[in-house]
Design a protein that fits this description.
Layout (H helix, E strand, L loop, with lengths): L5 H15 L4 H65 L3 H7 L3 H6 L14 H6 L3 H7 L8 H7 L11
GO biological process, one term: protein transport by the Tat complex
Pfam family, one: TatA_B_E
Subcellular location: Cell membrane; Membrane
Length: 164
């Protein structure tokens, strides 16, 4: 930006005071300040958009590099797996996969595990539907109690108490 020192600003202010007069000078100064602020905000927006576009281009380049590296790694792993399969079975990979019971098929086979425990979605509803007399007879707790309250509730009634 333009480099203004204190002496240049004072000279511009004195000339503006003489040309515009003391009545119009504050209004003009306010207008100039508003216009300078808008110009600075516009320059900052343009700068941030340029920086953002540069970052996007860098991220795209990095994405292509990473995807190329992942593709190369995947092909190397597949090649190593094919070589290991050939070494273990002594056959070609295509022949081994068509043979049926080869090592290659054992590696790619994922066993099916069913859900061994059935999901009980509405056990609270079923527990709440139990009759009260059944809960009382079988000692099912209906309310949450602290340990001290439970001990006090089931303390045997005796004539001698420990507390005076």
């Amino acid at each position: 930006m333009i480099d203004f020192g204190i002496d240049k600003i004072a000279l511009i202010g004195a000339v503006a005071l003489i040309v515009l007069g003391p009545e119009r000078l504050p209004r003009v100064a306010r207008t100039v300040g508003v216009l300078l602020g808008k110009a600075q905000r516009y320059v900052q927006q343009v700068q941030s958009e340029v920086n953002r576009s540069i970052e996007v281009e860098e991220l795209r380049k990095m994405q292509t590099d990473i995807s190329d590296a992942a593709r190369d790694l995947g092909s190397q792993v597949q090649q190593g797996l094919n070589e290991a399969t050939q070494a273990l079975s002594g056959q070609d990979v295509n022949e081994a996969s068509s043979a049926g019971g080869s090592f290659y098929n054992d590696l790619t086979h994922t066993p099916y595990y069913g859900n061994p425990v059935p999901v009980r979605k509405n056990w609270r509803l079923k527990r709440g539907a139990t009759p009260l007399w059944y809960k009382q007879r079988h000692g099912v707790r209906r309310h949450v109690q602290s340990g001290a309250a439970r001990v006090a509730r089931f303390r045997p009634a005796s004539g001698a108490s420990r507390h005076p």
